[in-house]
Fold each of these.
Amino acid sequence: MQNPIEIFTEDSDFQTIETLRRNRTKRNRANEFFVEGVRAVTQAVENEWEINALVFSREKRLSDWAEGIIQKSGAKKHFELPLRLMEKLSDKEDASELIALVGMPADDLSRIPLREDMLVVVLDRPASPGNLGAILRSCDALGVDGLVVTGHAADLHDPETIRATTGSFFCVPSVRLPSHKELSPWLDGLKQRFGGLRVVGTSAKAKIPIHEHDFTLPTVLLVGNETNGLSDAYQSLADVMVNIPMGGYASSLNIACAASILLYEAARQRRT
């Protein structure tokens, strides 16, 4: 194992690591992000993401899991810190054994695999990192091939987003795009390749309930913002608009709940 870089004070190395935890601009500039938690770090390594660095303390004995990750991660650097500094870095009540600094992959739609029965989710300006992470978790559980986040949105690489996915972040290709304009040519190409592909929009005002739509076709599912729903631009891209039938007083659902219901219906139809 390579010799670790030892940090004893809140020096420039420490500040760089800490900044990646809290500053979106610095994350994007460095092209790397902050990851902690057993499931998240494990999935990052097992799915062969680029591990730029591992951060840990040896003031307490590391678990077999942590030692195994250190041995097999292929991290370019190891930083060894006092426990008090690990506690400062960690977002957990009990400081994490390991923190990983992970390289950001390119925001390239070619990372999403193309299949005859493909299912892709497009999020229009999601505002909450927690919701974004929960949706990614549902995407992993319910057979989604890729996620696209567009517009001024919650940060895909925010530690809160990563934490909410419980490791699923590293299992579903996720791509950021500035707007629907960059997505539109890709959708046109998919329709040429897969004649049956449908772009499905979602709205409480839509007339077609989700159980009446055929989700067994190759599908790109458009899900709108928490406050404003799906934009007019995205509604114009949709081949069909569907709704989730609801009763009771509630007029809408949390975006993560709604996306999960939509994906469950798609998965249900594809199983039968």
Amino acid sequence: MPRPLLIAPSILAADFGQFAEEAARAEAAGGDWLHVDVMDGHFVPNLTIGPDVVRALRKATKLPLDVHLMVERPDSFAPVFVEAGADWLTIHVESQGDVAGTLRAIRASGKRPGLSFKPATPVSALEPLLGLVDLVLVMTVNPGFGGQDFIESALDKVKALAVLRDERKLDFHIEVDGGITARTVGACVRAGANAIVAGTALFRAPDMARAIAAFRGAC
């Protein structure tokens, strides 16, 4: 069954001095989710935002908050972001602690669990955990910083996940994040992705609504 195309503007590319206004702008422009990258400065070299910002974003928009935890210990961080208002919480298979237990705890809290992996990690590392998630996030750049070039080989991982999902009769979104533009989004959707994260291409476009429409048109 075809899945809806979901466009998730990434707040990492927004004006950090106007987060509330930028969240509202993404909603008004036709975004489906608001993507929030949380980095702890350890799992990846960058340090971004914490739960207080997510709490403020929750007040600023009705869009589902799609929170990507790029942190060493998601078992410690996840409950804090659940309380702050995240709707989707994606953690990394490479992170420390009990990954399966954290995914189960996210679901038990009433939120939607997701799993991600770095470009160097094979799809096979996720296979034992696919039955626990509602979303798999394929990183199409190396996580840590925005504005990187799209990694073409990530499309093979999207395809492999789509095959596994069908073979096992599972039901999860396949999300892509990193270097996504109107030029690359079509290939991602054809490979099997249906949730599209984009930062620079949307928040820094002259007209975000037109940029989102161009994404939909390219698919």
